[in-house]
Design brief:
Elements (H helix, E strand, L loop, with lengths): L1 H18 L2 H6 L17 H17 L6 E2 L3 H16 L7 H10 L4 E8 L4 H9 L2 H7 L5 E8 L5 E9 L1
Parallel strand pairs: 1-3
Antiparallel strand pairs: 2-4, 3-4
């Protein structure tokens, strides 16, 4: 009986040692937060600037800071998500955690996101967001920068992703 316990203990020890090396423990897994910054060029910048102007007007009316436009990382990630929503034919916040962590990797302290589709102008999408408590909270959040992914699908219907972050 004692030799059976000893043999089992030896097997467990061998399996434990074979399944995990100190190199595996020390290495860890690091996310790859790289993105093609050229994606940001695909957004409708005229519409994005109109949206940001309306949002900043609203924030100023509340005594809040204005938000600056980010035409690099935040917009590239926003465009990437907008294309994803277009491919699915639905709006969603899928993989928001990844976008948030990617912007935090670039120096953001906190990140928020609004999405929409079907609106044809800045006033209508901003009005819809302000009439939604969750979207309004994001617009009125403690943020300093915003990126945009505003792209029409093949039928000309616009999909929107607006990422907010505080730096």
């Amino acid at each position: 009986m004692k030799s059976l316990k000893t043999n089992l203990l030896a097997i467990v020890l061998l399996i434990s040692l074979a399944s995990c090396s100190t190199e595996d423990i020390e290495t860890g897994i690091t996310e790859d937060y790289t993105i093609d910054l050229n994606l940001a060029k695909e957004t409708n910048w005229e519409l994005a600037e109109d949206i940001l102007s309306l949002i900043n007007d609203h924030r100023i009316s509340l005594g809040m800071n204005i938000i600056e436009i980010d035409q690099q990382h935040a917009s590239a990630f926003a465009v990437d998500h907008t294309k994803y929503m277009i491919d699915l034919h639905e709006i969603n916040h899928d993989n928001f955690h990844y976008r948030s962590e990617a912007l935090k990797y670039q120096g953001a302290e906190k990140v928020g996101e609004n999405v929409a589709f079907g609106y044809s102008d800045a006033h209508s999408v901003v009005t819809a967001w302000l009439n939604s408590p969750g979207h309004r909270r994001t617009i009125e959040g403690n943020y300093t920068h915003s990126g945009f992914g505003i792209i029409p699908n093949n039928q000309g219907t616009y999909y929107f992703t607006q990422l907010f972050y505080k730096r």
